[in-house]
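---------- Forwarded message ----------

FYI, see the homoisocitrate dehydrogenase record below. Original note from H. follows.
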Amino acid sequence: MLRRSVYNRQFQRTIGNISKKSNLTIGLIPGDGIGKEVIPSGRQVLETIGPKHGLTFNFIDLQAGWQTFLDTGKALPVETVKTLRENCDGALFGAVQSPTTKVEGYSSPIVALRKELGLYANIRPVKSVDTPGNKKVDMVIVRENTEDLYIKLEKTYIDEKTGTRVADATKRISEVATRRIAKIALDIALQRLKNNGNVQLTVTHKSNVLSQSDGLFREVCKEVFESNKTLYSDIQYNEQIIDSMVYRLFREPECFDVIVAPNLYGDILSDGAAALVGSLGVVPSANVGPGIVIGEPCHGSAPDIAGKGISNPIATIRSTALMLEFLGHSQAAQDIQTAVDSNLREDKIKTPDLGGKNSTSDVVNDVIRRL
């Protein structure tokens, strides 16, 4: 369960032109594989929760992904970006299936979407349900969303000395992007401090090897903290090298509150942290930028189970709640999270990834019943 109003109070200020509205237009981008099976669950939940909170939703179906690329030659159609930018308050993005080898003209649509819409923060709460015997996990991983190796500047060439192929990739860390992700992470930590009375921020990097790129990330995060020390004085500020961070994450997850990381490390840490709470199928995320929030489950397209009706919708439902939270509707978001927690705590209706035998629709219907 996410704490009430953990995000929207700070982020209405941070992302500026997202205003609290009661009539919301939501883009639905299922993508590939199980994305087509779980995104409808987000719509069902919104349609259920809306009348209880005076909210109305208009939905726009949009295209992106590998199949879209095969059909149209573009993984992210211009129309999709235009509609999101001009017409949508929020969106739900499912999953995309990407080829493991280079395909001319294809690149990840979600990475491109983050760049096109300036979705510079990826917020991934990872929280265990409070049941006997469970290890307490309650952290938020704040992932810089626009740069690092994900700028996709790569080249392959023949080394003149050896006559063999070499591939180079550019890693970019900028002061601008680091400042805004550090500020968001500190604001989340500040809100958790108000709720808990004790919180720490952990900055993750590998500056002992990457002294300039990760070194800049480390330095700027510290500068943001130091320059606002009056505001953040009660937040414990820590740093952790990425390799030891992974070790501690699995050994001592209860030690972490808010983790801020460059794009690649944040991606790896948040997927790994999902193992601490049972499955990628229960971990949500929100891509946040100026003017729009896109909820996105952390799992992939899972082609091995696509079409079987057994994909876990919980991550999408939680991402739907997270989207609402950022759009200022904290009570509606809280009600969704409470229903999901109740489903998980009761431990009767669950999909195979959590050891159950139920279908996607079984879980969705149970959550809706609890709403």
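H. also flagged this: The first strand starts at residue 23 and ends at 31.
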